[in-house]
Amino acid sequence: LFAQVDYVDLAQANDWLHAPLNVHRAQGALRTWIRLDGTEVVGATADLALTNVDARLAPDLEPLQLSSFQGRVTQKRWGDDARGGQQYGFTGVTFVLASGVNFPPLDLAYRTTRSSTGPRHVELEGARVDLQGVAAIATHLPIGRELLDAIARYAPTGRLAEFSLQWDGEEPRF
């Protein structure tokens, strides 16, 4: 399926989009491709150009408020049937926080499996990640307390380019 909309208010999508995020406000343009297997969504790609964004990425997180958001966001089924999981990708994503902080372009892929019989497997790959930018939005992201504490303690700066991390089980301790 393909859809292109020159103006959309993504807050209206909360009723029909079954995702962990809650969009309170986000207006702009959207171009999306959705892949189906029967009646099941197995992947989606969205090119977004949004302004005035106010969203909560999980119920227990602080709202993320952005003046603008632009780039490609992808989601697809990943892994085998026994340990099935999800892959989320961000390509050329850039945004400006409501405070005026500009986040340079980001290329990142996050993959995780779920398993009732063993540890989950996680992979994180990136080509352009600004560490100071990630630190600025860390409290708005669904990451563990130990990692949040490490970000606050070390105040990372610089950029990561062409990196890959993998682990089995819970997120690494810092």
Notes on the protein architecture:
The protein is mostly beta strands and 174 residues long. It contains two helices and nine strands; from the N terminus they run βββββββααββ. The chain has helices spanning 131-137, 145-154, and strands at 2-9, 22-37, 40-56, 64-78, 85-97, 102-113, 121-130, 159-160, 163-168. Strands 1, 2, 3, 4, 5, 6, 7, 8 and 9 form a nine-stranded antiparallel β-sheet that branches. The longest helix is centred in the last third of the chain and has 10 residues, at 145-154. The chain starts with a strand and ends in a 6-residue tail after the last strand. The mean pLDDT is 88.
Radius of gyration: 17 Å
Strand content: over 45%
Q: Which class of secondary structure composition applies to the elements?
A: mainly beta
Percent range for helical residues?
under 10%
Q: Which spans of ≥5 residues are poorly predicted at pLDDT below 50?
A: none
Q: Give the overall average pLDDT.
A: 88
Give the secondary structure arrangement, pairings included.
Blueprint: E1 2-9, E2 22-37, E3 40-56, E4 64-78, E5 85-97, E6 102-113, E7 121-130, H1 131-137, H2 145-154, E8 159-160, E9 163-168
Antiparallel strand pairs: 1-2, 2-3, 3-4, 4-5, 5-6, 6-7, 7-8, 7-9
Task: Describe the structure using short key phrases.
174 residues; nine-stranded antiparallel sheet; 9 strands; mainly beta
Summarize the model shown.
By secondary structure, the chain is mainly beta.
